Amino acid sequence: MVPEQTDQPFSHGLTARILVADDEPRLLHTLASLLRNRGYEVAEAHGGRKACDLIDQEPFDLALLDLRMPEVNGFDVMAHLANGQPDCGVIVVSGESSFSAVSRALRRGALDYIRKPFDPEELLATVESVIGKKSLLEAHEHIQMRLEKSEALHRYIVNSSPDIVFMLDQDGHFCFVNSKVESLLGYQPAELCGQHFRHILDDRDVTRGTLALKGPNITADNPRTLEVRLKTRGSRRATRHFEITAFPIDPQTWPHSGSTQGGGNGNGARYYGTARDVTERKEAEAFINFQAYHDLLTRLPNRALFKDRLELAITHAKRGGQKLAVMFLDLDRFKVINDTLGHAMGDRLLQAVTHRLEKCLRKGDTLSRFGGDEFTLLLPSIHNHEDARQIAKKLIDALRAPFQLGDHEVFVGVSIGIAIFPEAGEFMDQLIQNADIAMYHVKGKGKDGYRFYSDSMSIDTANRLNLERDLRLALERDELRVFYQPQVCSKTNRIVGLEALVRWQHPERGLLYPRDFLPLAEETKLIGQLSERVLDQACQDVGRWIRAGHDDLRLAVNLSPIQVEHPRFVETLMQQVKAHNFPAGNLEIEITENVIMNDLEQISQKLRELAALGVRIAIDDFGTGYSSLNYLHRLPIHTLKVDQSFVKAIRSGDDGACIVNAIVAMAHGLKLEIVAEGVETDEQLEYLRGLGCHQVQGFFYGPARPAVEISRTLGTIRAKAASF
Question: Which residues, renumbered to this chain, carry the PTM 4-aspartylphosphate (predicted)?
Answer without folding.
Answer: 66
